[in-house]
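Quick one, probably user error.
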C-alpha cells in the first residue's frame, strides 16, 4: 500500500486575498480536503466544457472578435485553474511512503 506523506502543505484550488495561493496542512482526510477535491472536480469539468465550446466556436466563420476574445479569456482562467490543480496533485504524488515495506 502507498500512502501520501503529509509533511508538505497542499496547494488548494482557490486563491486567497489579492490572488495569493492558499495551502492546507493535514492528513488529506478532513472537510477542507474533501471540499478541495470537489472544487478541483468542478474546475476540471468546467475546463472540459469550455474546450468543447471553443472547439465549436473556432471553425465558425461568423464568430465575432468579441466572442473569440471572450472565449480566450475564459480559456486563460480555466488553464490557470487546471495548472494549479496539476501542480497541487503533482506535489502530493512526489513523495509517496511505502507502508508495506520497512524503512
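Nope, works fine. Designed sequence:
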Amino acid at each position: 500500500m502507498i500512502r501520501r506523506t503529509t509533511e508538505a502543505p497542499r496547494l488548494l484550488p482557490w486563491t486567497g486575498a489579492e490572488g495569493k495561493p492558499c495551502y492546507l496542512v493535514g492528513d488529506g482526510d478532513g472537510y477542507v480536503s474533501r471540499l478541495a477535491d470537489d472544487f478541483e472536480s468542478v474546475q476540471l469539468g468546467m475546463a472540459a466544457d469550455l474546450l468543447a465550446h471553443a472547439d465549436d466556436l473556432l471553425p465558425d466563420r461568423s464568430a465575432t472578435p468579441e466572442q473569440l476574445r471572450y472565449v480566450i479569456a475564459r480559456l486563460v482562467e480555466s488553464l490557470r485553474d487546471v495548472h494549479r490543480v496539476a501542480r497541487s496533485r503533482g506535489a502530493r504524488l512526489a513523495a509517496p511512503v511505502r507502508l508495506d515495506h520497512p524503512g
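The chain has a mean pLDDT of 88.
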